[in-house]
């Protein structure tokens, strides 16, 4: 299938909002405009083969004489219209007695170049040395306008001074339709950036509201159901983090995922949640609703990613087509010159994923974030050292007994200086509230260990021994 049709079909079938479809890259319109660019170049004798020859001459030339060969096609910023590109084609022509002499060029091209050079050279012709060719400001030599060119066409005017010299001239070729092409493309890319920005703001608000609702519903102080749901949410988010839906942190496939990969990961997550009956296990209506919203946020994010992806492909394809028809090499230069904070920067997934982690996932404290870095059990009783690192009281006591002075995480001289003032009571309350099971287990383990220290290795924590 041709890309134009494929693109249209995807836009229709993916269920994108109409507003998105309307702002998609106007591939068909660009293709028509490209045709006009091609015709324009052909009329000037600068068809794709001629330009390819000039490009080849340029790349084979030595660095010193580079400016004497080929052409330059620059996409500069339009000074009057901010953020718009003004394409400029500059051709370097060898002239002998006012006639273009590059044997590889077709007669029509040489004819054209001769004509345009004669008009441009009326000011100050540049002679056969590369540096002087470089000095001449392109605008001085540029053909002033298309009209002017037509007026004078058919007349080869070789100023006397040039006739005895072989010279190299830098000539700006007057083109109209390439400007139109890049105008359409840049305008559309900018509009898509705005659209994506709006979408992102909207989703941000949804994500923040969702985070607040989950946090409210699962506050352990709200009762038994909230406590039970908190455990379920913890399992749900643990699975979600494992799924790495939009980003992989694994070394083998590090980085952003394609929408197809993200879809697969999201499906895996949903299947696992179903398999483990986690949603059915949610006791509060608010929790179940919040889960649906969470899935919805992911689905919208996925849709945004997909839309961005197919538009990026459309831009790549049309630039490739442009180069194929003109040999002007814009596939490399346009992505550098274009102003796009979003569409071509591809940051939407990254920004929103960070938002989801900080606003939603973080509302459910994960055990991993509250472990003692020495014994890897929950850091209870928590001791916050002067360096702000938190350890469990048992591990601190053991370090002090061994006379260790330095924090194993930051090497700060803080261990022997720690005392009862380092008990973090507020943090202890938080741990008891959010991880009651783990705290109970840790207290039991601590007591058993202490009992063995006092009463010997046969000590057990049978119910009669422990209060
Ligand atoms: Zn510990
Ligand atoms: Zn430390």
UniProtKB/TrEMBL annotation:
Record domain RING-type: where: 372-411
Keyword Metal-binding: yes
Top-level taxon in the UniProt lineage: Eukaryota
Biased composition (Polar residues): 119-132
Keywords: Metal-binding, Zinc, Zinc-finger
Region called Disordered, residue ranges: 117-152
InterPro entries found in the cross-reference section: SPX_dom, Znf_C3HC4_RING-type, Znf_RING, Znf_RING/FYVE/PHD, Znf_RING_CS
GO molecular function: zinc ion binding
Zinc-finger is among the record's keywords: yes
Family annotation (Gene3D superfamilies): Zinc/RING finger domain, C3HC4 (zinc finger)
Ranges of residues in domain SPX: 1-336
Official protein name in the record: RING-14 protein
Organism field: Neoarthrinium moseri
